[in-house]
Amino acid sequence: MLLMFGVGAYLVAGYEVVAVALGGTIAVLLQFKPELHAFARRMGDKDFKAIMQFVLISLVILPVLPNQAYGPYHVLNPFKIWLLVALIVGMRLGGYIVYKWVGAKAGTVLSGVLGGLISSTATTVSYARHAREAPETSSIAALIIMVASTVLNLRIIIIVGIVAPSLFWALAGPLGAMLGAASVVTGGLWLLTRKETVAVPEQENPSELKPALIFALVFALVQLGVSAVKQYFGSQGLYALAFVSGLPDVDAITLSTLEMARRMQLDPEVAWRMILLASLANIVSKAAIIAVVGNKKLLARIAVPLSLTLIAGGLIFWLWP
Question: Can you tell me the mean pLDDT for 213-237?
Fold first, then answer.
């Protein structure tokens, strides 16, 4: 009733556009009221608390941070570091909200897509454990892990477009080729397993404050590491750092590389190769996770797709002009 009173007040005051937009929004929300209530029940208090923590990350902490460089090499800007943290957490949270919305109705491919948006590494761990407990799901678990790993490449390209739009076309070619190669491999695996189904394991909410703080610390350390290695060891040292940094997570080294490239401290050719190496290292890490956490059937099923993806990435790294 208060909202409709506000619509009437806007009409009387002459703000017809605002009144129509507000009225339409209210109508849509009322129409989807049952679905929204069901979504709220699926989310639960813990997840809503985590979403409010994202509000804390992006709308409370970020505005009060100083926007100037500190530390050695003048690369530690608290505002920019936290802004990029909010970007990554926001992208992952978006995937998590969709995951909570669709729940068990998510198909195989959608499960992999959402897993890639939230965290391809966490998705690998979840489905490796699931395959160990239920070996008959190994084939479909391999497909979902491959889909999540492929979507990771798409997420990297999106991050490039957001963080360094001026370099997008210089970096999008080889990174897009990597996405295309991974998509072809994943598509072949899908043809072999498309009729199978598997239960969707629970995903962790990516907007918790503690992981965000850890990511900010890792990102800051990687920024310092990239600057120091570039000064003392050159491009070869940067490639080694990118590979090691990409083993646990690709986002930190991707953002650090893009920041330096955007400031013209790195050539675009070096930047995309560092990002590509980090993504290849992450594939190696996933294989190790599957070997330790999963079972032999899952490892045998996914060994060829992962190997083909690594070979394709290596060819792009060496042969791309």
Answer: 91
For residue 147 the two structure tokens come to 């889909």
Cα dihedral 291, 294, 299, 301, rounded to 10, equals -170
For the entire predicted model, the pTM comes to: 0.84
* Complete DSSP assignment for 210-243: HHHHHHHHHHHHHHHHHHHHHHHHHHHHHHHHHH
pLDDT at 276: 97
Q: What number is the average pLDDT over the span 280-309? A: 95
Tell me which of 107 and 252 has the higher pLDDT. Answer: 252
Min mean pLDDT across 36-40, 52-56, 102-106, 144-148 is at: 102-106
Element (H, E) at 271: helix 268-293
Interatomic CA distance for residues 162 and 168, integer angstroms: 9
Go through 127-156 and write b for each residue having 16 or more CB atoms within 10 A of its CB, e for each that does not.
bbbbbbeeeebbbbbbbbbbbbbbbbbbbb
Cβ atoms 252, 121 nearer than 8 A: no
Q: How far apart are CA 99 and CA 207, in angstroms?
A: 14
Q: How many CB atoms lie within 10 A of CB 19?
A: 18
Tell me which DSSP letter residue 70 carries: B
Q: What is the pLDDT of residue 215?
A: 92
Burial of 321 (0-12, 13-18, 19+ CB in 10 A): exposed
The helix (run of H) or strand (run of E) holding residue 39 is helix 33-55
Gap between the Cα atoms of 44 and 26, Å rounded: 24
**What's the rounded Cα separation, in Å, for the pair 166 and 248?**
28
Q: Report the distance separating Cα 303 and Cα 167, nearest Å.
A: 34
How many other CB atoms are found less than 10 A from the CB of residue 234? 11
